[in-house]
Amino acid sequence: MFVHSPALPPLDYAAAAVVGPGSRLVLSAGACPLGSDGTVVAPGDVAAQARKVLENVRTALTDAGACLDDVVRLTVYVASADRADLVAAWTEIRAAFDEMPPATLLGVAVLGYPEQLVEVDAVAAVAG
């Protein structure tokens, strides 16, 4: 269950998530914008990399018995000090969710692969 606190300013995402007893947590590794050949896709294109990262998050969650609807926490990393790049990544990530789970968006100096601009890790809670 997502919590939207009336004491906080309006947010584009939930302020908190409550995971009930009996839920199974699924924690993804940081998903990178890698194609099937292991190389970074769309060098220089934050939005395209964010879309690929989401595709890779979906795959990892599916393989673990979860889906994006089960996500209760996200961390989004963007290798840029330009706020427009952070917004571009956020826009793509936000579009994947009917209701945005609690999330953190960070601009960082560098990510693990050459030309990588976006990385996302997710926590999902699957009932039963």
Question: Can you offer a commentary on this structure?
Answer:
The protein has two helices and six strands. It has a four-stranded mixed β-sheet, covered by helices on one side. The protein has a two-stranded antiparallel ribbon with strand order 1-2. The mean pLDDT is 96. The protein has a single domain, classed as 60s Ribosomal Protein L30, Chain: A, CATH 3.30.1330.40. It is globular and about 40 Å long. The protein starts with a strand and ends with a strand. By secondary structure, it is an alpha+beta fold.
pLDDT < 50 runs, ≥5 residues: none
Assigned CATH class: Alpha Beta
Residue-averaged pLDDT: 96
The number of E-state strands comes to 6
Sheet with most strands: 4 strands, mixed
CATH homologous superfamily identity: RutC-like
> What order do the SSEs take from the amino end to the carboxyl end, as H and E?
EEEHEHEE
Q: Radius of gyration, Cα only, in angstroms?
A: 15 Å
Structural class: alpha+beta
Percent of residues in helical segments? 10-25%
Structure, briefly:
The chain is an alpha+beta fold and 128 residues long. Helix content is 24%, strand content 23%.
